[in-house]
Amino acid sequence: xxxxxxxxxxxxxxxxxxxxxxxxxxxxxxxxxxxxxxxxxxxxxxxxxxxxxxxxxxxxxxxxxxxxxxxxxxxxxxxxxxxxxxxxxxxxxxxxxxxxxxxxxxxxxxxxxxxxxxxxx
Length: 121
What we know:
Blueprint lengths: L5 H21 L5 H15 L3 H14 L6 H9 L1 H6 L1 H27 L8
């Protein structure tokens, strides 16, 4: 067993669980993993040398990230019949919401950030 991976694993899992504890304990509408990620970021900024101890383990996780999508793929295959029967409607909804999101982003950018302070656009 590779004991060098235990510490980084425990740091990452502890950050996740601490975030879940804060989110649920305070009733925040933010996912615990997001709060844990922010806490981990703060810890990485404040604790010297923590980055160098966690980086190799984190890189290994990122290189194997595809494995985390296997359960989702199995779930999609389990309901493939439903997806096939509702496929055209799902496609229409995806296209409509994508266009609506792009339009909302463009209008927001134009209203808030489209003009520069120096007068140039």
